[in-house]
Amino acid sequence: MATSKNLENIADGFSEPKKRLLYYLKVMQHAGLEELAKAMKISRMAVHKHLALLQERGLVESLETTGHVGRPRKMYQLTSQSKTIFPKSYSAIATHALDFIERNMGKAAVEKVLRERQSELFDQYYKRLRNLEYDKKVKELAKIRDEEGYMAESKREPKNYGKHVLLEYNCPIIYIAENHWEACSTETELFEKLLGADIETTHRAAKGDLVCKFVIKERKEGHL
Q1: Given a cut of 70, is residue 12 above it in pLDDT?
Q2: CA torsion, points 164, 170, 175, 177, in degrees to nearest 10?
Q3: CA dist., res. 103 & res. 146, Å (int)
Q4: What span, in angstroms and rounded, lies between the C-alpha atoms of 190 and 64?
Q5: Helix axes 182-195, 107-129, angle to 10 degrees
């Protein structure tokens, strides 16, 4: 999943290996030297060198966990400071605009603005999903979201027909969502409408989770 398109907006000025390392830690959430070396296909020593420099910048931190045989094991994860280096769709300007609307026109006006935006997104997404079968719709939706900077992927539940999980490891609208929960609820409604599915949002980055997780269950009626 770590393509050049995924990496191009991450931490401009960093070398390509460091961008890849930041990307893998974002997706893996925490990992040891061996896992990172395997994912990046470079030596443990090279990974350690990159990690040391990223730790100096305050973007990565280490912690010790207890392994299967009781021995402490060093793991690495991103710090809270690191979220500023991943792509953002709207930045602070949109947040200030919504704050202004809420102060002057109330919460209902904020929700109206966000619903109008989701209506625009529906039209864009629908063009790519309308002729696809259900399973391919979910996969294509994940692809669209990945292209938009959400670092997304979908997984099908092998033992549960019609059930998928959509994972988004990055939230480009996190600053909006932290202050305006309507951004999250209208997003879920958008996915339900596009897929003709029932969706349960079990994890949200705006609530402090490391990933946004959508559990998607196909409906038998109401398909696009």
Answers
A1: no
A2: 0
A3: 33
A4: 41
A5: 30
Tokens of 76: 């690495």
Contact partners, residue 89, CB within 8 Å, separation at least 6: 148, 149, 172, 173
Show the DSSP H helices in 106-133 as ranges: 107-129
DSSP letter for 201, please: E
Look at 3 and 215; give whichever has higher pLDDT.
215
| Cβ atoms within 10 Å of 192's Cβ, excluding its own | 16
Cα(199)–Cα(219) distance, rounded to whole angstroms? 10
CA pair distance 169, 141, nearest whole angstrom: 15
196 burial class (0-12, 13-18, 19+ CB within 10 angstroms)? middle
Are 129 and 224 contacting, i.e. CB atoms less than 8 angstroms apart?
Answer: yes
Give pLDDT tens digits for 17-26: 888 888 888 8
Describe the chain by its helix, strand, coil percentages, rounded to 5: 55, 20, 30
Domains parsed from the chain with CATH numbers? 4-85 (1.10.10.10), 91-218 (3.30.1380.20)
**C-alpha distance from residue 190 to each of 85, 197, 220 (Å):** 27, 10, 18
pLDDT at 46 over 90: yes
